[in-house]
Specification:
Layout (H helix, E strand, L loop, with lengths): L3 H27 L6 H9 L13 E3 L2 E17 L2 E18 L5 E2 L6 E4 L4 E3 L2 H8 L8 E2 L4 E10 L5 E6 L8 E4 L2
Antiparallel strand pairs: 1-2, 2-3, 3-8, 4-7, 5-6, 5-9, 9-10
């Protein structure tokens, strides 16, 4: 018989294993990038320009179309006991819709989304907090078939007082991402 602690541990291990598998599969199917690292840095540094689309405007990146639906401060803890997490700083939540506009199934990972602040610092998504906040762990680790979409929160653990300005969205870990202005 499973105890609560053992069940929690099993759930966390399963979520981590699914994320690792999805990262591996995404890397294998992503192909090479034709842009040089210098070009990637230049693109990332100009991502907060006023010409970037804003919230509620679909943005194409590879096989996906991303739409930021809402942004908010999500506080310092997410989830419910025994599956919860406390931020090092505070959580910033981006409610995101991801639609597959390609011709084949594609896996989206919250790891492929980055957040930039007014000072130009870049933050990775907190995958564990995202899973706990979404209520449906399969939302960000399941393949999305052509024409289908998933929607839910992506959380970032940022220092308290951080002013996010830009979300960088991508369909894999090997691109710099397309900017969406959020602040």
């Amino acid at each position: 018989m499973f105890t609560t602690a053992r069940l929690v541990r099993s759930s966390v291990v399963a979520a981590i294993a699914a994320s690792a598998l999805a990262v591996t599969l995404t890397g294998c199917s992503a192909g090479g990038s034709s842009s040089a690292p210098a070009a990637a840095e230049k693109s990332a540094s100009t991502s907060s320009s006023p010409s970037a689309p804003g919230m509620n405007t679909p943005v194409k990146a590879g096989s996906f179309e991303f739409t930021v639906l809402d942004v908010k401060d999500a506080g310092t803890t997410v989830g419910t006991a025994p599956l919860g997490k406390t931020a090092q700083g505070s959580y910033f939540q981006v409610d995101l819709k991801v639609a597959n506009t390609g011709n084949s199934s594609q896996t989206f990972l919250a790891d492929d989304v980055k957040l930039k602040d007014a000072a130009g610092k870049t933050y990775n998504a907190d995958v564990t907090a995202t899973l706990y906040a979404s209520g449906d762990a399969s939302t960000w680790v399941a393949a999305i078939n052509p024409g289908n979409a998933v929607q839910g929160p992506v959380l970032f653990d940022v220092p308290t007082g951080t002013k996010p300005t830009t979300l960088l969205v991508a369909d894999n870990a090997f691109t710099t991402g397309s900017p969406i202005t959020i602040g």
